[in-house]
Description:
This protein is of the alpha/beta class and 332 residues long.
Amino acid sequence: MKTAVVILNWNGKKFLExxxxxxxxxxxxxxxxxxxNGSTDDSVSFLQKNFPxxxxxxxxxxxxxxxxxxxxxKHVKAxxxxxxxxxxxxxxxxxxxxIDLMDSDKTIAACQPKIRMYADKKMFEYAGAAGGFIDKYxxxxxxxxxxxxxEEDKGQYNDNCEVFWATGACMFxxxxxxxxxxxxxxxxxxxxxxIDLCWRMKNLGYKIMYCGGSTVYHVGGGTLQKSNPFKTxxxxxxxxxxxxxxxxxxxxFRVLFIRAVLDDIAQLKxxxxxxxxxxxxxxxxxxxxxxxxxxxxxxxxxVKENVSGVYNRSxxxxxxxxxxxxxxxxxx
Length: 332
């Protein structure tokens, strides 16, 4: 088959019930799979009863986003994988626009559509917006979202353009490149694994794209809520792991030193705001990376200098000190 939509599910019956009908309606050119990640609710029986045309790939345990998809995609044979969160509403033509773009250039490894908020459909959504970038210290941001500031979609990002990373909430990826790059790093479990994968594919010489002609709506926070300390731990830990794996060598140790300072400032901010659990989560993330540094470093493969899509300044300084709240405010 050419295209497979693969929805990773973990105790998400309510989202499948709400959003799978839109996927089935607007994905006639694709085969739809649900990869169940060890759910303990009645997701699977619900699917079997109400969506018998959906192929189910089941795992006995929750392997996280990374492990769940790696395992499920072994059972899916397609030219393109569309990795779709269960809490996403799709729209007419959402697949064709992106696949046409990827078909036009074999060096495109992955692509994402425009991601807007389900709750407020005129606003960009946090997890992807109009395509992802990172700054020189590894902080991710998007066109349409810088840290916590979201933009209203007024057509300013309706183009197709090369980006640094495509969101895992709705990622189109060429299957042969996904396999060649080694898939997701399962040590990440969840969060930033898609940025790590995109960075590895870019290091192999491929492009990551954003397609402004395709739009989906994302609820967000369906598995881990925004304020969850475990999510804080994963974000801080995985960001550092990603740098160690992918950043060119002569920059790495200087960047890690500065990140240590910035992460300490983040810990201080958590204490002052009364978020002690988040403070502890950052400490745990730092300890994990310190004690597993050489294990993480062994994963380095092809590392490319001057990878496109990196903002070679400090996003923290631009946002918090100079008041640059939008992507278009940044000086590149």
